[in-house]
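Assemble and predict.
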Amino acid sequence: MSLVNFTTREITCKIVYYGPGRSGKTTNLHYIYGRVPDTRRGRMVSLATQTDRTLFFDFLPIDLGQISGFTTRFQLYTVPGQVYYNATRRLVLQGADGVVFVADSQARQLDENLESLQNLQSNLLEHGVDIRTVPLVMQYNKQDLPRELILSGADLDDALNFRGVPSFSADALHGQGVFETLKGISELVLKKLAAGSAV
Amino acid sequence: MTSALNPKYSFDTFVVGAANRLAVTAGRTVAENPGTAYNPLFIYSGSGLGKTHLLMAVGHAAKQTAAALGIEYLTLDEWVEAFHAAIAAGQGDAFRRRFQNVDVLLVDDVQFLTNRKEMQSELLRLTEALQTAGRQIVLTSDRPPSQIADLDERLISRLSGGLVVDIGVPDYETRVAILRRKSEERGVRFEPGVLETVAGAEFANVRELMGALNRLVAFQAVNEASVNAESAKRILGLSAAAAPVAAAAASAGLGPDEFGAFLADVTVTVGKAVEAWRARVTEAMLRWEGEGYRTQRLEALLKQEAPAAVDEAIAQFGQDVERLKALESEVAQFDPEAAGHSVFRDPERVGEAEQAAAKVREGVAPPPGPSGAFPLVAFAVGPSNHVAVSAARAVLERPGKKYNPLVLVGKSGLGKTHLLNAIGLELAHGRGAVVACLSTQAFTDELIAAIEGNRVDWWRARYRRATALLLDDIHLIAGKERTQEELFNLFNLLQDKDRQLVFTAPTPPNTLAGIEERIASRLEGGLVAELQDPDRDVKRTVLERLLTLQSISAEPALIDYLADRHADSVRGLVAVVQRVVSAAAAQDVPVTAGLAREVLEGQAPREARRGAGLRTSGLVVSSLGGIKSREKMVWDWTDPTDRVIEEFR
């Protein structure tokens, strides 16, 4: 996907929120949606099942306006977390400029997190992309839950973040860490874009 | 030639406050009822307070009210250019028709009408025509009509006849509102309190305020940390005092704006890393634009995908601007008006600016100064010229302030030229003094030469620099319309700046024929000091000096005899002495009272050898109108023997 279009003077960043089911990916998008001024955001498309699970994907376009002469847009996607929607996940992942891996901080969800992370790696590979080259940040969500139920950010770093990418503790429901995460991934994406377009 | 209305400058984007409410209301009214409400509408304010913005807003609003209206916006300079082009093409009438058919005419920067007489009358005519046809005219200027130098009285009254409103410096609240709106337009967010800090600072106008905002935007774009109130003060070089009040007020709003903060961060990231060169170019653009320079070269750079040698281009641009600044300040010394020309604000036109500066530099040669042959100490003083001499002394004490102008009046040969030059010499001692002292004839000749050489501008510039203007024989200006015109302008300009003006004339100015009323009345407006026929004291002083100069030891009887003889001018007296001296030399006898009596009374009195023609101080104007200016040269010679030659010729 062309990130920087010099002819139309546009920058478009596709950012995919990845992670196991019920880890809070859609919640992230909802929070962001609520904070973006009306004039800056497109309609949030959410295809959800009866039980409020993401069936296909969520899509939130954000218009950041003119930056350095470029019309800058962010497109935020979520994938369905449930294992059986892998085809959809792979499809959504296609052309992603950056990935936010939203992990569920509950201790009992650790395996799901790991499984989803492996799934991310293999799906990227299917598109011929090495996970080490994709801008990636980790978000440890639900840090607001009682201490005894969750793992700390440090523990999760040890367990999941073996590549040492930026990680953020978050409480997406109340917005804690949501924008920090978005900021983190944006910087990575834009820096990569800089490296790519430097002639 | 006509500028398009900038779509950014509408009433919607104009922040209204107490200082500009009246002007905005008037502007809106005019836009809604063109030609009927206030016509003409004249808006004036200091630089950077929104005149142009308001003027264009009127245009936009009028267009919205009635799309069919013909609206024309242009600066006075553009209008003058258009006029000149039309005249050059022989299309003067087409030019007039074109502007007479505009429904709403918006003219910016009218103050440049100064010294453009022909444009003033053109504008007067146009204004009348538009008003008669019920069409609207709106003008802006940096000062009210009555204060535009050299503006025709009729034009002043015409321009003041509609509504004259000013725009003041915005108050604090308006400044905050302006900053908020501008940063919003830019898509930049600042931490709470930053804009309030900026608004709290003393900026003379909105443009400077924008410059401050630009610096903050640029700073925030290239640095990791976002600007807060404290660092804003540091960046803008404001003192640490004042303004924390506002911060609290701002943070009492909706709570943290996470999206805004995010946007700011992304902007920083893009600016810094994604396209670092763009950020540098933009920063340079903001800086130079803030200082009022045109930046289309940098703009063009931004349009390229990956220009080579960006930093060199920016550095070169900076150098060009520095050069323009240097040229501008150099030119401003000699001709402030020329320095205001747009070439000094456009780095693409450095070459033209150099040429313009060179042209001005040519005019730098100082105007003719006073002759050293007429020192004040050598001026013989007596009751007959006491008034003139004490007036001269008063002028020297407080040049430009006491008697301005000073007009020395008297017959030929009483020492007017001497006194004029003496004043000039004394004034020339002052620091930085540029004393223009010459005969009116030379003044006219120079003007004619300048017109021939198409160098009237520098000729004017040359005299405008003068700290004093002294013209001998001002009556010679009679009938010379252009010289009178130029002198009138120069007179006003110099008098406004408290620069001393001194003239000589044979009779009081209001009795001189062929001189325009406006000049005569100005000449009368200072002090008219008359020199009388030389009295005994004066004659004695002159005689003693004259004889001493020729190493003749005069017996008191000779001096008494000569001093008692009637002489209607000092020059006549000098001639008499020369006759006696030369007679003595011819007979090889000493100069005595007896000899003098024999020489002077033995012959029939020599009367008025010069006959017809207007006698001036040294100049002889024949009845045919030709001027034997060489005779003036003769009188400039100080050696008395040379004067003898002249006398016997």
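Chain A touches chain B at residues 4, 6, 11, 32, 35-37, 40, 64-70, 72, 175, 178-179, 182-183, 186-187, 190-191, 193-194, 197, 199 (CB under 8 Å).
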